[in-house]
Amino acid sequence: MIRQGVILFCMLCTVLSAGAQNPLGFSLLKKNNEVELSFQNESNLIVVPIILNGNGPYNFILDTGSESGIIFDKWVIADHNMVNARTIPIYASDGVKITDLLVANDLSVQLKGVSGKQQSMLVFQEESQLDIKNTLGVEAMGVLGSEIFNRFVVKVDYQKQTIRLYEPEKFTKPRGFKKVPIEVRDLRPFVKVTLKQKGQKPVDVNLLIDTGASSALFLDEENNPEIVLPENNIKHIVGSGLTGEIKGRVGRVNKVRIGKRFKFRKVVASYPENWNIRKQIDGTNGNFVRYGTIGSDMLSKFIVIYDYMHNCMYIKKADGYKDAFRFNTLGLRITAIGEDLDQYFINEIIPNSPAEKNGLLKGDEIIALDGKPVFFYKFSEINNILRESPGKRTVIIIRRDGQLIKKSIKHKKLI
């Protein structure tokens, strides 16, 4: 993955009933035709503050890959919202039951300039198994899904960290944007993308547009012969789901084209193991197969306007459009703990990486980077250090068994 701490909400949300959402309950306040609100960009995930039942604000992740809103901790809502709550069982891809979710009803949801009444959301009965807080380094209480995107035309600007919501009947395409067709299925958007894999002919694939996945591409190589795992790949933890860490491999796709005009080279792609996403789409239409996901590391290279009502999105190149897709060059993955999420521990070492060769171990606590204590860094800033250019050196101090150990490690291209 490109960003450490990617969350595959689609691993949960693709199995959920669309009954737990009510896009028509949302409206703009003060009779405006549009409203702008700010968001927090965490590893290219869109984190917005919301007021829930008059309480908060709580951080929620705005996710096109989710059919429904989700609450991770049921204590943030009142007991009366759970009266006669319907139960939805959640199963792993092997058929084993993981947990039950409840459908909370009659919720009030407010964002800046936006009000949602009589909303329903899925709720974890027990503490969420999705390790959002420690993996992202941000206290996220849930997910806002298709409710927003099916109600409004939504413009996302990752660099300015702003979202603009438009009344669909009043929206007109701004100048400079190019139209790209999408197909909305089960309340989620899919786009046709052309892949050119090494040694293969170009192939058109349907990818879920998922703002809740921070890596550029996730491809289902196991169930689709058109998807070929690159020869140059590494084993890696590519995400997190209800069953824990999602293992897989990471490589690069030679060329990726979106629409007719937008082309990328050497795109970092994750290939999850035992993903089994194909069967969740089959049957809707015999000609439609989902091959994977396009995530925010690619979406953030654009200013994106989602218009579900007209089955299209409008995209415009952002300032970082030509920047190369970067991957971890130290070879370690971190997790954040502590009350302020400012203690960082190594939770994965990539085999044959600089981190492994320099003797770093899973469980080591990172104390300082380049002479600066880690509590001065944001989670995303540390991840940027982990992806520095090959050849650069990073001085890292770790604590192990009460002893401080200092290492000067040279970054190396891994894929």
Automatic annotation (TrEMBL):
One annotated GO biological process: proteolysis
Lineage top rank: taxon: Bacteria
Keyword Signal: yes
Pfam family membership, one: Asp_protease_2
Signal peptide: 1-20
A molecular function (GO) term: peptidase activity
Keywords: Hydrolase, Protease, Signal
Matches recorded under SUPFAM superfamilies: PDZ domain-like
Protein's UniProt name: Aspartyl protease
Record organism: Roseivirga pacifica
Lineage: Bacteria, Pseudomonadati, Bacteroidota, Cytophagia, Cytophagales
